[in-house]
Specification:
5-stranded mixed sheet
Length: about 160
C-alpha cells in the first residue's frame, strides 16, 4: 500500500513536471520519446492549411504518422479534436496520427479515434511513456528529477 502511494506520488510529480515545461520543452520531450522508440522524427510541414495542428511527423518502417500535442491540463478533450486530426490524416495521406495530451479524452473521443486512424495518448499514457523512455539515474530516483534534468522548465 505504501509502495502504491509512492508510485502515485511519483506519477503526479512527473505529470506536474511535464505541465511545467515550456512549449518547446514539451515538444522536445515528445520528440525524444519517439526517437527512443525507434521513430525518425521530422519537422511539421512548412505549408498547408493544417500546419497549426501538426506539431511533429514521425516515421518508422515506412509508416508516417502525424503528431498533435496538447498541453493544457484539459479533461475530457472533445471528439471534435479527434475528428479534426482524422481529416488531417486523410488530407496528408499518412498512416494515422497520435493525439497526445496531458489530460484526458471524452468517451466520444475514444469512439471517434477508432474510426479515424488517430491514436489517443492521455496523461496516464504520457506518464507511462516518460517512465519507459527516461534512463534511470539512481542518484536521482524520482521521475520528476529525471524529467527536470532533461528539459528546461518554463521561465
Amino acid at each position: 500500500q505504501q509502495r502504491e502511494a509512492e508510485q502515485a506520488r511519483e506519477r503526479a510529480d512527473i505529470l506536474a513536471a511535464v505541465r511545467n515545461l515550456s512549449w518547446d520543452g514539451y515538444l522536445a520531450l515528445i520528440a525524444d520519446i519517439y526517437r527512443r522508440k525507434a521513430f525518425e522524427v521530422l519537422p511539421p510541414p512548412a505549408e498547408g492549411s493544417d500546419t497549426d495542428v501538426i506539431d511533429l511527423v514521425v516515421d518508422r518502417d515506412g509508416q508516417r504518422m502525424l503528431v498533435n500535442c496538447q498541453l493544457r491540463g484539459e479533461m475530457d478533450i472533445p471528439s471534435a479534436a479527434v475528428a479534426e486530426m482524422g481529416r488531417v490524416v486523410y488530407n496528408y495521406s499518412v498512416a494515422g496520427a497520435y493525439l497526445i495530451a496531458d489530460g484526458s479524452f471524452s468517451d466520444d473521443s475514444e469512439s471517434e479515434a477508432g474510426s479515424t486512424g488517430v491514436v489517443l495518448i492521455d496523461g496516464n499514457g504520457l506518464i507511462d511513456l516518460v517512465v519507459e523512455t527516461t534512463p534511470r539515474d539512481e542518484s536521482k530516483p524520482s521521475g520528476f528529477s529525471r524529467l527536470n534534468t532533461r528539459f528546461a522548465k518554463k521561465s
